[in-house]
Prior knowledge:
Elements: H1 2-5, E1 18-20, E2 30-31
Amino acid sequence: MVEIAEIEVKAPVKIGQAIKDDLMGTGVSLVATRNIKRVDSNLRS
């Protein structure tokens, strides 16, 4: 679980997108379960 907690992903992310392949050597991919929109950097204060 530590490997999952350390993963950082840049938006945008789409449902079903593979975030990490071969998670912990299991041959299983970590897959996004929701959409995350990109934040426009001009909107940040």
